[in-house]
Design goal:
The structure holds two protein chains of two kinds. By secondary structure, chain A is α/β, with parallel strands linked by helices. Chain A contains 13 helices and 17 strands. In chain A, helix 1 runs antiparallel to helix 9, helix 2 crosses helix 9 and helix 3 runs parallel beside helix 4. By secondary structure, chain B is α+β, with helices and mostly antiparallel strands. Helices cover 41% and strands 19% of the residues of chain B. The chains are: A alpha/beta, B alpha+beta.
Amino acid sequence: MMNKDIKSYFPILNQEVNGHKLVYLDSAATSQKPIQVIEAMKQYYEFDNSNVHRGVHTLGNRATDKYEGAREKVRKFINANSTEEIIFTRGTTTALNTVASSYGRANVAEGDEIVITHMEHHSNIIPWQQLAKEKNATLKYIELEADGTLNLEKVRATITPKTKIVSVSMASNVLGTINPIKEIAQIAHANGAVMVADGAQAAPHMKIDVQDLDVDFLGFSGHKMCGPTGIGVLYGKKEHLEKMEPIEFGGEMIDFVGLYDSTWKELPWKFEGGTPIIAGAVGLGAAIDFLTEIGLDNIAEHEHKLAGYAMDQLETIDGLKIFGPRDPMKRCGLVTFNLDDVHPHDVATVLDMNGIAVRAGHHCAQPLMKCLQQVATARASFYLYNTEEDIDRLVAGLRSAKEYFGDVF
Amino acid sequence: MSFNNLDQLYRSVIMDHYKNPRNKGSIEEDAVTIDMNNPTCGDRIHLTLKVTDGIVEDAKFDGEGCSISMSSASMMTQIIKGKKVEEALELAEIFSKMMMGEDYSEKYDLEDVEALQGVSQFPARIKCATLAWKAMEKGVK
């Protein structure tokens, strides 16, 4: 099923932008949505829409079945032990903030350490900065190797018995680096810390087995994996979630409410205050069905190939520098680069005039930009619907950017 | 491809300011200092202004950013030098209208700044062009 026809499932890709057939190379920011996901959400709103977990009526039951059905799909997708461990959130950011605010506040004390890396997205930095400030704890960073990978010796040297939380991205949104989460989790556990994985750039692109990785928490976003915006997942081991306090209070998450005290529902609902993102969960469920049918291994293989092809082609352009590991097997399907003398914004504008969408900027990773000594970079990110032809268009677009700016310089 | 659309954005005068920025540097003494950045893209400007008796006597800038943000800073410092503070603020308002594609007063000769008119056709780039002007407004107010 990994072939050119896959584009036909994505209606948005069938259009012209600035007079050229659209080439969408910004899936690491958000992916496009296949017709299956759009239809599932339309169907939900046209036939089943109702609030969940309360209606005695038929629509209420259908909505509840669909919402809880999506939770089971997520459980299976990451091989969690039970649906009690699957909490629907707004996205990865909310998932990581929930861990920091609930688990973090209860388990991190003055003098303790929280360990992250220099390649994290802002959403896996700031919640820990805030927690460290609040608790007078120390936030430590694992340094990167020159090729943008992590060295397990440095991981071992940074994590100590004082470390309470280790939080690392499974795949970097800038370098593309795929990190050895299972090994880092072992090191964290040997020191008595919990392991948090930021799966935002991993869940769309590779098989995740939370039991095999033995992570304590995992967050990811629906919209980067063919699902809608506004829905994401926090996975947590039941032993932790059971002891954790909710961070949002209100309807839906309560068991008994008195005048001065209340009790919470059982897992996972105690973390889902308010009317949940029902249509979003339905859409995410449809996205999981779609990705599973194609096969995550096939998607990963396709992206490794595209990353390799992209790097080979990009390197033929004089003055183009690629960041992150050169080995395509060590990275997910994105390539971040800069073109000599042409600022990435200018690169992105020239590409846009050619119908090619890339990201330019700091990619919500300012500390990493500092490490790379770049103010901003350009990033082309690939997904299952991208082809070698798309990369050829990118390379041609970059050549015209060079030509254009070369003329005036 | 044809470069016509791009030429709308990157007029040669813009490229000239990008390549040979005017008033690059920093005023060391008696200057108002403004540091501003565009958090969505990392453009950064360090602007120093020397204002005496209500007149912008000198203006210098330093920073990092794309051709649009840096050339706009260069042109802005050029045009406000020697102007009264009220005039500089009026120019900032005119520039803001120009970026929004709205009609603006023809009271001033906009000099090279006029070349930035095409930016209004590129919504994603307007913030690049207005960064230096926002810093200036903050500095003289």
